[in-house]
Amino acid sequence: MQPRWLDGRLTSAVASEFIKPNDRLSSFDRLEIYNRVYWFRVLDCLYDDYPGLRAILGERKFGRLATAYLAKYPSTSFTLRNLGRHLEKFLREEPHWVTPNEELALDMARFEWAQVLAFDEAAAPPLRPDDVLDTPAAKLRLRLQPYLSLLELNYAVDKFLLAVKKREADILRDEASNTFDSMPRAKKRKRRIRLPKRERIYLAVHRHQNMLYYKRLEPAPFAILCSLGKGRSVEQACESALRGCKEKDCSRRLQEWFHDWSALGWLCRMRQRGRAAG
Amino acid sequence: MPANRFNNFTELGIGIGLRVPHYRHILEKKPVVDWFEIISENFMVDGGRPLEVLDQILEQYRVVQHGVAMYFGSADRLNREHLKKLKRLVRRTNTPWLSDHLCWGSVDGRYTHDLLPMPYTFTAAKATAANIRAARDFLEVPICVENVSSYAEFHASEMTEWEFLSEVVERADCGILLDVNNIYVSSQNHNFDPYEYLNNVPHHRVGQIHIAGHSKFEKYILDTHDHPVRDPVWKMYAHALELVGKTATLLEWDDRIPSFGEVHNEALKANQFVEKELETVPA
Ligand SMILES: [Fe+2]
Asked: Suppose A217 and one of A42, A202, B55, B60 were both cysteines; which one would form an S-S bond, judging by CB atoms 3.0 to 4.6 Å apart?
């Protein structure tokens, strides 16, 4: 706990004003128990939610980042599930915590937060063919599932995270089986996975049958989905994304994409606004 | 008081907390369990796997909701959005009663995610009771408040913890979730007689009992829920049953969680005390 209170007084003096000491612990000691439990709980939560970011930064640097982040953005939600909600914003505001991997760390933080959303964010009723039959493409607007995130990233964080998770699973399995291994466990734990190279990727992070998935997309379908998500009509979204595409090939591919997205349940009907009562 | 208005006149027996590491075992093997307690906040989500699991559990088992974030004792009024989400869950689970803690944990919209002890004052009792009443009126389900374990006491306190608990539940006209492990932990940390606590709460209001394990450190005891129940706590449990009668009991095991079978067996040890208690009750 910090030795000084916000107003500059000694924390021990402030604590003794409102907390009773007992025969074993001072007021400060008793407050310190709560302080320790608090930090343990919130740091542990970020530790679990951001294994990829942890692997990029290393444990110590991650700990410093998490502490600074929580000091600036303490929890404002009844559930710890939302604890990382402002991490992307924080990394944009204070990138020095993750130097020299600013962009990579930001990509990973966005990717890992998208997984939190994909896990238990709301699902809207998916679009049915009947919903759109009577609406021309110029007027048709769709929305995307709330649990779906579309990420344009500068690093292949998807592959990197898979490697991190595989390493953690290997360590757990070794610990469980207790088998002889040529590489000592501590060394294996520290084995760093090579950081990904710069590479532009387009990711959709979503769930299907309540399982979490991430799927790489090509630039054109990614752009269409982003436009739909921003409320553009289907015609507008497709036109701008496919400018320069040869007519015949285009329509076939469009059909394939929309077919895939419907099968995955990503497309939903726009909410009806101001439906008349009675 | 086996069945009373605070537990909606139910007699649920011995339950355990529903925890993620046991999901698969429960869904596949469908073991016989009297009831499960769920942490409400874990299921106050808008979709995905948690609700799918919950619905499958609800098909087979009786579920009671236990909250950790209502913070009846916070100076802020209860959060309306929180209550709305909770009510949606209450409708889903059809919980016979609902419990949360006699504590505070948020201030000015910031959350500690901890169960912080209250100053035992009449002003705090009044405000807390008002919050409990407001929650019950909104949620339309009986509420039991749980005594927490604590590591600090306040100079401002005007009464003992058990007097404060009694004051709050009488004012709110609500039930008590009596956590005997918490009483033990606090009694060791604050040098009081845990039996005096047990003897002096309104027994007719006890709707549920919690038992759990704790960890001993050199200068204090921490309520870690990562051990089997320790002997002094079992003794207190037996005494509690003498005072309140056979009551729905739940074992909490939240950290370093062993297999389902181990947790369930530990919980079922409570039956020995329940049976003994029944033998001594005159016909
Ligand atoms: Fe408890």
From this structure: A202
Taking contacts as CB-CB distances below 8 angstroms, the residues of chain B near A72 are none
Alpha carbons B145 and A58: distance in angstroms, whole number:
43
Q: Domain holding B161: CATH number?
A: 3.20.20.150
Which chain A residue shows the shortest CA-CA distance from B154?
Answer: A19
Beta strand residue intervals within chain A, DSSP E: 19-20, 142-144, 149-155, 198-208, 211-217, 267-269
Size of chain B in residues: 283
Nearest to A78 among B41, B46, B48 (CB): B41
- What is the total count of domains within chain B? 1
Could you tell me if A45 and A83 are in contact, meaning their C-beta atoms sit under 8 angstroms apart?
Answer: yes
Read off the pTM: 0.91
Angle at alpha carbon of residue B174, lines to B172 and B175, rounded to 5°: 145
Distance from CA of B105 to the nearest CA of A (A): 10
Structural domain that includes position B143: 5-280
Structural domain spans, chain A: 50-174+195-269
pLDDT digit string, tens, across residues A199-251 = 999 999 999 999 999 999 999 999 999 999 999 999 999 988 788 776 677 88
Q: Compute the distance from residue A121 Cα to the ligand 1 centre, in Å.
A: 29
